Amino acid sequence: MSYRLTIVVPVYNEEDNLQRVEKEFLTYFEMATVSCKVLFVNDGSKDNSQELIEEICSRDNRFTYISFAKNAGLSAAIKAGFDYTDTELVGYIDADLQTTPEDFNKLLGEMDDCALVTGVRADRKDSFVKNMSSKIANGIRRAFTHDGMDDTGCPLKIIKADYAKRIPMFRGLHRFLPAMILLQNGKIKQVPVRHFPRIAGEAKFGLWNRLLGPLMDCFAYLWMKKKYINYIVEKTSRG
Q1: Do the domain assignments include residue 237?
Q2: For the chain, which end, N or C, has fewer CB atoms within 10 Å of the first or last residue's CB respectively?
Q3: At what angle do helices 213-227 and 128-145 cross, to 10 degrees?
Q4: By residue range, what is the domain housing residue 167?
Q5: Cα torsion angle, 71, 147, 34, 16, sign
Q6: How many domains does the chain have?
Q7: Which CB contacts under 8 angstroms, 24+ apart, belong to 230-239?
Q8: How far apart, in Å, do the first and last CA atoms of the chain sit?
Q9: pLDDT digits (tens, 9 = 90+) for 115-163
């Protein structure tokens, strides 16, 4: 079967969520507006996540996986997902399913003239501290990048794969995906999506990751923006 969209699902110690991920995607496959498949990226989990991933993939070939030798972080998992994608479009969702695969259809409806469409979590179901730290971090990031995005931490995105594969990823840069698309002169858009409480597993980011870490990453982005190389090939002898 020919697929148009690969949905990357980073996994780090999410054994309590993976059966729900399988169930949610089996439902979504039936309502998806394009043909799609899932790529689990096991980021060195220390629980039974890998065993469960292999069981899921053995039951349905629309589920595939890659597994890291050791934990490398969310940015590395997303980058690996981009690198291993072989479809026109690549999406991203967290394994905790605080966003729903169903809302990929909302993003897909805006993809025709965009290189990236990202969700904006409406009515967030997180703690006051988490919400406020995210708002502050997003405000700082917008001041540095001028990307106009309100919620780059939203774990629901779709990117045209040729843009995604050109993103030079490093630790923390997953928060700057829209800004990196702008460096490639691609159009970006945000769409409101639903948000749900975490049902199982533990959050992987604390106050440092959500607030102080992104501030340091902003300076890395400014350096990259200054050094970024962008080119357009007009002709080639390869036809």
Answers
A1: no
A2: C
A3: 20
A4: 5-227
A5: positive
A6: 1
A7: 230/183, 230/184, 230/185
A8: 28
A9: 999 999 876 555 555 655 566 666 666 666 667 676 777 889 999 999 9
- Please check whether residue 103 lies inside any domain of the structure: yes
Q: Which of 193, 10, 23 is nearest to 98 (CA)?
A: 193
- Indicate the pLDDT class of residue 217, thresholds 50, 70 and 90: confident
Q: Classify residue 136: in a domain, yes or no.
A: yes
Q: Looking at residue 50, which CATH number applies to its domain?
A: 3.90.550.10
Domain for residue 239, yes or no? no
d(CA 15, CA 17): 6
Side chain identity, residue 63:
F
Beta bridge partners of 211: none
